[in-house]
């Protein structure tokens, strides 16, 4: 049976005092005509509910407008749920009442005298002193005024009393002849309870949004929530709206959550981080977000939580989870719009290092706990962000290596000599590469160990491709010189030692390209000095050589080159110096064993003496420069002793010493030496037969590559050598 429609909504009554600027419903919405209506005839049910229903319509309309204007994100189903349960209860009561009234209508029993006409009039006037009790009688203000003034405890006590009376009247079938009166009074109770719930939410919102904290209002809120939970402990039968739990504690938790969401969403609202790939706007937004969260949580701990100290409200935990959830939601929104390597890193870094820092809230006792808070970003989202970041990072690091190569090429074109740093030739290449790798690896390590390992692999792959590309570009340029070669040798050695020491095993693949580049630079360094000295060997073992100091220019070249080696890292400098030493001895012997002139008699003796002096000079020079290749000192001396030996039987001993000292010597070299000595066919045959066994034994010994001497000396077969063999 449909409820009667009201033809005239009746005049609107206003509160004698202006309501405070809060997010609760206006006082006029709660002070309905039913709260001030006069007594009407009990039998005329249509006339009796006409004013109350009109006010009810206006109240519901204003309540919905106020809720939508003040709280866009507030739960829109509050009044729908309350009204749905209420109308179920009302429909049930009206149906029961009308049925009973119809059966008893013929008898026409009069309504018992003394029963109040409507719950609203009792709440507003307080006239029924015998029914309302002393506290209600003493309180002359309406429930709506009490709610507006945030005297929630007094308002709830009145509502609870009226609710109890209404339940009792319903049980005693007082409304059998006038079921709409029950509807009016039940609707009033519903609206006032909903008004108190809205005021609870408003108090919670104001606690964060306003400058100060109204501790009295928060204490009043906590007390009324406890009173309601004690009054409404169990749910009533299905469809019965009265005396059912109102779940105000859940309303409080929802208000905390929505308040935190509002605060987090408002932070950095004027910043548009997705407009460009730069990180400054996003960093500014996150800085503002962190400032808001930090300020609000400090306020919760220092001001809001003490207001609840006499209650069992989990204030800190609820606010903490609410802000954590709101921040996580905001970061997910930002992650969808993040562009480029910089923005992705700023987002990951803020989540891992700023928000996750123990100092985020500014005090050790305010640190965000890791448990039981869930991850700020879901593992799948975090993995996607890291993957996107590393994809951008790979391109960026490759571009950085291109920039390093371009900087070095600019120096080559400007003919800038490398500087000497701590006694060694230095090029910025090593520092640039170190800074590039260390910066990105350190930044990734601050976020996660997995991201650090991935970044390190990206840097290693990019460096493995860069090193041979750099080597090729340099050797093709016009800047190849002792200075640059020494500087790049030092750079490669420094990269090998420092990077592999700092990241052991992780970038082991760098060993091969760096060693190859070092060997290549060292080889070209030797080629420079060899090409410079090569023409000076042509005057050796000639007529002019017997009377001139042709060795001095050669040694001057060696000394000048050794000055460059002083600025090369010591292990490679020593290795290079020994190679130069070996080159000088090898080329000297090669010139002697392939002579343009052959000496005999006194010239041969003088030549042997000159070779002896040259051997001493070469040995002393390299020894003074620090060469450790002393095994080379006997080579020229042994050949000189064979050529200048006057006692021919001792030549066999000199040959034995030569073969034992240099196991890489071959039979062709022995023939060339004997051809220079010209001992005669028979003696040469005897010496060759004697040395065959020694040569076979020497060939079984494989000297290391850096101790090879005669093997690299070519001695073509000449007529004189053939004659020597015959």
Structure description:
The protein is an all-alpha fold. The protein folds into four domains: about 25-260, no CATH class; about 270-370, no CATH class; about 380-525, Tetracycline Repressor, domain 2; about 540-725, Tetracycline Repressor, domain 2. About 65% of the residues lie in helices and about 0% in strands. Strand 1 and strand 2 (about 425) form a beta hairpin. Helix 15 (about 340-355) crosses helix 16 (about 380-415) and helix 16 (about 380-415) packs parallel to helix 18. The chain is rod-shaped. The model is unreliable at about 1-140 (pLDDT under 50).
> How do the strands line up in the largest sheet?
1-2
Structural class assignment: mainly alpha
Q: Please give the domain count.
A: 4
Instruction: List the quaternary state of the chains.
Output: single chain
Task: Please estimate the helix content.
Answer: 55-70%
Tally of separate helices:
29
- Biggest sheet layout: 2 strands, antiparallel
Which percent range describes the beta-strand content? Answer: under 5%
Number of strands: 2
Q: What's the rounded overall pLDDT mean? A: 79
- Terminal CA distance: 143 Å
Instruction: Please state the overall shape, judged from the principal axes of the Cα atoms.
Output: rod-shaped
| Low-confidence spans | 1-139
Radius of gyration: 51 Å
């Amino acid at each position: 049976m449909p409820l009667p429609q009201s033809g005239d909504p009746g005049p609107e009554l206003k509160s004698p005092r202006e309501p405070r600027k809060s997010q609760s419903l206006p006082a006029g919405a709660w002070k309905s005509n039913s709260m001030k209506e006069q007594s009407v005839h009990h039998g005329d049910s249509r006339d009796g509910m006409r004013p109350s229903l009109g006010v009810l319509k206006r109240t519901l309309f204003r309540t919905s407008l106020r809720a939508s204007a003040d709280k866009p994100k507030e739960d829109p189903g509050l009044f729908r749920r309350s009204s749905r349960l209420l109308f179920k209860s009302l429909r049930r009561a009206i149906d029961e009442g009308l049925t009973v009234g119809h059966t008893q209508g013929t008898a026409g029993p009069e309504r018992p005298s003394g029963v109040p006409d409507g719950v609203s009039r009792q709440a507003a006037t307080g006239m029924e002193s015998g029914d309302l009790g002393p506290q209600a009688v003493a309180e002359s203000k309406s429930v709506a005024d009490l709610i507006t003034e945030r005297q929630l405890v007094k308002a709830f006590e009145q509502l609870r009393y009226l609710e109890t009376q209404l339940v009792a009247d319903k049980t005693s079938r007082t409304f059998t002849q006038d079921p709409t009166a029950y509807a009016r009074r039940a609707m009033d109770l519903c609206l006032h309870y909903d008004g108190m719930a809205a005021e609870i939410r408003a108090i919670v919102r104001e606690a964060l949004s306003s400058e100060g904290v109204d501790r009295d209002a928060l204490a009043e809120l906590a007390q009324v929530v406890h009173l309601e939970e004690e009054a409404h402990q169990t749910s009533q039968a299905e469809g019965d709206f009265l005396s059912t739990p109102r779940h105000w504690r859940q309303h409080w938790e929802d208000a905390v959550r929505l308040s935190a969401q509002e605060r987090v969403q408002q932070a950095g609202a004027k910043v548009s981080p997705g407009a460009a790939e730069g990180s400054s706007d996003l960093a500014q937004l996150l800085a503002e977000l962190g400032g808001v969260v930090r300020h609000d949580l400090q306020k919760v701990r220092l001001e809001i939580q003490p207001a609840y100290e006499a209650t069992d409200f989990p204030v800190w935990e609820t606010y903490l989870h609410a802000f954590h959830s709101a921040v996580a939601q905001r970061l997910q929104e930002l992650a969808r719009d993040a562009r480029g390597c910089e923005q992705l890193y700023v987002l990951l870094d803020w989540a891992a290092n700023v928000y996750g820092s123990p100092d985020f809230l500014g005090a050790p006792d305010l640190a965000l706990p890791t448990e039981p808070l869930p991850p700020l970003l879901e593992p799948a989202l975090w993995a996607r962000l890291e993957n996107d970041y590393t994809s951008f990072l790979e391109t960026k690091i490759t571009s950085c290596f291109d920039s390093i190569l371009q900087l070095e090429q600019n120096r080559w074109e400007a003919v800038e000599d490398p500087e000497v740093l701590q006694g060694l030739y230095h090029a910025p290449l090593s520092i640039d590469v170190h800074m590039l790798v260390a910066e990105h690896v350190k930044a990734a390590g601050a976020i996660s160990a997995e991201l650090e390992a991935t970044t390190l692999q990206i840097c290693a792959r990019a460096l493995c491709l860069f090193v041979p590309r750099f080597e090729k570009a340099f050797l093709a340029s016009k800047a190849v010189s002792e200075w640059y070669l020494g500087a790049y040798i030092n750079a490669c050695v420094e990269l090998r030692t420092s990077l592999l020491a700092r990241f052991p095993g992780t970038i082991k693949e760098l060993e091969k390209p760096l060693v190859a580049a070092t060997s290549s630079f060292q080889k070209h360094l030797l080629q420079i000095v060899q090409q410079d000295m090569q023409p000076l060997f042509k005057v050796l073992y000639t007529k002019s050589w017997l009377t001139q100091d042709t060795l001095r220019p050669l040694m001057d070249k060696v000394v000048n080159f050794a000055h460059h080696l002083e600025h090369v890292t010591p292990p490679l400098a020593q290795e290079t110096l020994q190679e130069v030493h070996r080159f000088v001895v090898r080329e000297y012997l090669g010139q002697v064993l392939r002579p343009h002139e052959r000496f005999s008699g006194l010239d041969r003796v003088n030549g042997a003496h000159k070779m002896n002096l040259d051997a001493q000079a070469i040995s002393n020079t390299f020894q003074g420069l620090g060469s450790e290749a002393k095994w080379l000192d006997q080579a020229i001396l042994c050949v000189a002793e064979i050529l200048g030996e006057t006692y021919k039987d001792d030549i066999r001993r000199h040959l034995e010493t030569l073969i034992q000292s240099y196991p890489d010597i071959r039979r062709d070299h022995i023939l060339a030496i004997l051809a220079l000595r010209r001992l005669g066919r028979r003696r040469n045959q005897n010496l060759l037969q004697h040395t065959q066994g020694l040569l076979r034994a020497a060939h079984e010994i494989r000297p290391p590559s850096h101790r090879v001497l005669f093997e690299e000396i070519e001695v073509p077969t000449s007529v004189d050598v053939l004659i020597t063999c015959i």
